[in-house]
C-alpha cells in the first residue's frame, strides 16, 4: 500500500479537531478548558495547535465543560477516521509530529474566508457529535455530512471554494427605497 504523505493524520488529531469544533460551537474560550485541566491559560491553545499532546486525563477533564461524554467524542472521531480512510487518508494511532496534514489544514480552514463568512452568517447546524453519517442504499455506501473542517481537509474543490475571498463576501443587497447614496 502506498501512503500519500499529503493525506496522513493521527487519531489524536481527529479528536483534537472534534473538541475544537465543540468548544467554538458552544462559545467557550480556550482559557476555560485550560482552567479545567489546571494548566496555564495558553495550554488549550497549544493542544488545539498540535503542540501539546492530548492525553486521556485531559480529554476527560475537558469533556465536562463541553457537555460531552468522552465516549461520544471518541465515537465521533472513529467515524471521521473511517470517513477519511474512505477518501484515501491514512490515520495512524501514533504521534506523527509535524507530518500531520489534518493539523496543517484545519487552521487554514479556520482562517479561511469561507469559515469567517459562515461564522458571520450565524447559521446553526448540527453539532459535530452528530456527524458524519453512514449510508448504504444497496447501490452505494459511504460516509456523508462531514463537518466543514473535515470536508476542507478531504475535498480539494471544497477547499478552493472556502479559500475564495470573492465567493465568500457577505451579500449586502439592493439599497432600500428612498435611500440616497
From TrEMBL:
InterPro entries: Cro/C1-type_HTH (IPR001387), Lambda_DNA-bd_dom_sf (IPR010982)
SUPFAM superfamilies from the UniProt entry: lambda repressor-like DNA-binding domains
Top-level taxon: Bacteria
Sequence ranges assigned to domain HTH cro/C1-type in this UniProt record: 18-73
Name of the protein: XRE family transcriptional regulator
Amino acid at each position: 500500500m502506498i501512503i500519500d504523505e499529503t493525506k496522513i493524520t493521527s487519531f489524536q488529531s481527529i479528536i483534537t479537531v472534534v473538541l475544537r469544533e465543540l468548544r467554538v460551537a458552544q462559545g467557550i474560550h480556550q482559557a476555560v478548558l485550560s482552567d479545567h485541566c489546571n494548566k496555564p491559560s495558553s495550554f488549550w491553545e497549544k493542544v488545539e495547535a498540535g503542540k501539546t499532546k492530548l492525553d486521556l486525563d485531559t480529554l476527560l477533564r475537558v469533556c465536562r465543560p463541553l457537555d460531552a461524554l468522552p465516549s461520544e467524542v471518541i465515537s465521533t472521531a472513529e467515524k471521521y477516521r473511517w470517513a477519511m480512510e474512505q477518501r484515501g487518508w491514512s490515520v495512524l494511532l501514533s504521534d506523527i509530529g509535524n507530518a500531520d496534514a489534518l493539523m496543517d489544514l484545519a487552521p487554514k480552514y479556520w482562517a479561511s474566508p469561507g469559515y469567517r463568512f459562515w461564522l458571520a452568517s450565524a447559521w446553526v447546524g448540527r453539532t459535530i457529535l452528530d456527524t458524519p453519517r453512514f449510508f448504504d442504499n444497496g447501490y452505494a455506501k459511504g460516509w456523508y455530512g462531514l463537518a466543514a473542517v473535515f470536508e476542507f481537509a478531504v475535498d480539494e474543490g471544497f477547499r478552493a471554494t472556502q479559500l475564495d475571498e470573492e465567493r465568500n463576501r457577505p451579500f449586502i443587497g439592493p439599497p432600500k427605497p428612498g435611500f440616497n447614496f
